[in-house]
Each structure stands twice: as structure tokens, then as C-alpha cells.
Amino acid sequence: MKLNSKLAIYTGVMTDDEAERALRAERQREYYLRNRDRIQVQRRGNYDRRREEIRIRRATYHRRLKRELLAGYGQRCACCGEEEERFLSLDHVNGGGAAHRRQIGSAPMVWLDAIKRGFPADYQILCFNCNLGRHLNGGICPHQDSMSASAA
Ligand SMILES: [Zn+2]
Ligand SMILES: [Zn+2]
């Protein structure tokens, strides 16, 4: 390899600069081939680290979005009054939540939509219990059933 580069200079095929660049590329390639396993492990590690950083940044961003969302809607379940942030979810008042999430990409993107549109009334905060209860009970949380039953 080295000889070829030197030969290239002698025969005038390459200028000194070109030959030097070619020589450097050859050395780098040889170095890479000799250390391939170690270099690949290192690259893999960098990749994993970057992915982990991205995951953390995304999780932090989603937490911030959710705080903003809950602050905008009053931080409690519209049905039972649950206030624990981790129990609370955004409910589509008129249904179609799953389809909307699919269309828009993910739950946090739906939160962002609500925040951007200034917390419109077609969303509400429900705890997961009431959210699921509502969907399993034809659109009305069982809490509301028992409330109207006891009122009657
Ligand atoms: Zn609730
Ligand atoms: Zn409820």
C-alpha cells in the first residue's frame, strides 16, 4: 500500500498532497481493520448512550407537557376528583380518543394539541379508573350511575 503511494508520486500520477492523503486513508483503514472489534463495541456503546439520553430527554419533555396540561384543566379527575398526577389522563369528551391518538401519533402529542388550543372543552381530565369505566359503561362512568341512583 505504502509502496503504491510512493510509486504514485514517482510516476507523477499523484501530487505529494494527494499521495499523503491516500497514505493517511490507508493507515486509517488498516488501523480500523486491526481494531475492528474494539471500535465496533465502542460505537455500539456510544449509540446506546445517545439512545438513553434521547429517552430521558423525551420523558422529561412529556412530564413537562403533562404538568402544563393538568394545570390548564385543573389537576383533578372531572368525575371523582382524584388529584394524583400519575392517575390522571386526558379524555376525549365526545369519544374517538384511540383513533385521534393514532392519527396524531401519541398521547403526548394529543396533550400538546390541547395546550396549543388553550385547553378546549372537547377534552377533560379523568383518572384512568373513570376513563376506563366510562368506556366500558357506554360513555358514562359508573360513578355517575350510582350518583343518579342515590339521588333518585
Ligand atoms: Zn376519577
Ligand atoms: Zn368516575
Task: Give the total of beta strands.
Answer: 2
Low-confidence blocks of residues:
none
Averaging pLDDT over every residue, what do you get?
A: 90
Which oligomerization state do the chains in this entry correspond to?
single chain
Overall structural class, as computed from helix and strand content, comes to mainly alpha
Would you list the SSEs in sequence order as H and E?
Answer: HHHEHHEHH
Shape designation: rod-shaped
Q: Total number of helical segments?
A: 7
Q: Any ligands, ions or cofactors bound here, and which?
A: zinc ion
Name the features.
single chain; 152 residues; mainly alpha; two-stranded antiparallel sheet; 68% helix; rod-shaped; binds zinc ion
How is the secondary structure organized here?
Blueprint: H1 2-10, H2 16-34, H3 36-73, E1 88-92, H4 97-104, H5 107-116, E2 123-127, H6 128-136, H7 142-151
Helix pairs in contact: 1-2, 3-5
Tell me what you see in this structure.
The protein has helices spanning 2-10, 16-34, 36-73, 97-104, 107-116, 128-136, 142-151; strands at residues 88-92, 123-127. It has 152 residues and is mostly helical. It has one domain (35-151). It has a two-stranded antiparallel sheet. Helix 1 packs antiparallel against helix 2 (16-34) and helix 3 (36-73) packs across helix 5 (107-116). It is rod-shaped and about 100 Å long. The N and C termini lie far apart (94 Å). One zinc ion binds next to strand 2 and helix 6.
Summarize the structure.
The chain is mainly α. The chain has one domain.
